[in-house]
């Protein structure tokens, strides 16, 4: 390497180290630019000295990387070697090419002609819950809607349009609606607290309503099993309530009643995913039975 390159590298290391260890009293060997000796091939002590310093620097950088989570943001940024810092999303486009090349010609031809999904998935926007992947489905098999907390609001026109389009307007409408919650959900945890979090707080107020509806059960879980079990049960109850909200819609009730003899009755399911295992489990709560217990309150003609 040239003297200029070595000087730049050492300067970057010193900046990272000084930023990350400004409150510490001890320090490892400080990095200084290497100046080539007039006789580099015969001056063994200088070469050994630089080698020792380089090993110390490498060891210090490894220690810094192990503790990067506690560093100031600027230090973490300077240590980053992620491809995204260099090429933006170019690496994603390369991955897309590889993915597209893995698809069969038959599948591509089918998708080019239209879509015939069997399922509508209403899930959380959480990055750990990708719809098609977790169920092992191919592109074109699942119509997908995602939002924070997998909530079904009666005033969410985007969601309502997606439901109507998928269960009634598609050339071959879906036959199953799957509402999927997941454990360790940030929306559920936020709704369990008492902090004012602005617009997000308004959005997740539906989860607070679930807490109110199931107050006695949730209080018992909290007192007997602890906070983690409380959050898990709230995830499950909220998912069931969102599935019931789907069943309140007229377009869904028409499909469930098999008004159109050419289409099978629509089924609504409530499931939950555990990010720690990757498994999706159907909830034991009978969504249809709960809905029918409400009698004529939500039943439409």
What's the count of strands? 5
> How large a portion of the residues is in β-strands, by DSSP E?
5-15%
Strand order of the largest sheet: 2-1-3-4-5
Point out poorly predicted stretches: 20-29, 31-44, 67-81
Helical content, roughly?
A: 40-55%
The global form is flat
Largest beta-sheet details: 5 strands, mixed
Number of helices: 15
Q: Give the end-to-end Cα distance, rounded to a whole number of Å.
A: 80 Å
What structural class is derived from the secondary structure elements? Answer: alpha/beta
Query: Which whole number gives the mean pLDDT?
Result: 81
Order of secondary-structure elements = HHHHHHEHEHEHHHHHHEEH
Radius of gyration: 28 Å
Structure description:
The model is unreliable at 20-29, 31-44 and 67-81 (pLDDT under 50). The relative contact order is 0.08. With 301 residues, the protein is an alpha/beta fold. It has helices spanning 3-20, 44-66, 73-79, 84-87, 90-102, 105-113, 131-134, 157-169, 186-192, 199-203, 205-213, 215-225, 227-247, 250-256, 287-293; strands at 119-124, 142-147, 176-182, 267-274, 279-282. It has a five-stranded mixed sheet. Helix 9 (186-192) crosses helix 11, helix 12 (215-225) packs antiparallel against helix 13 (227-247) and helix 13 (227-247) packs across helix 15 (287-293).
What is the topology?
Blueprint: H1 3-20, H2 44-66, H3 73-79, H4 84-87, H5 90-102, H6 105-113, E1 119-124, H7 131-134, E2 142-147, H8 157-169, E3 176-182, H9 186-192, H10 199-203, H11 205-213, H12 215-225, H13 227-247, H14 250-256, E4 267-274, E5 279-282, H15 287-293
Parallel strand pairs: 1-2, 1-3, 3-4
Antiparallel strand pairs: 4-5
Helix pairs in contact: 1-3, 9-11, 11-13, 12-13, 13-15
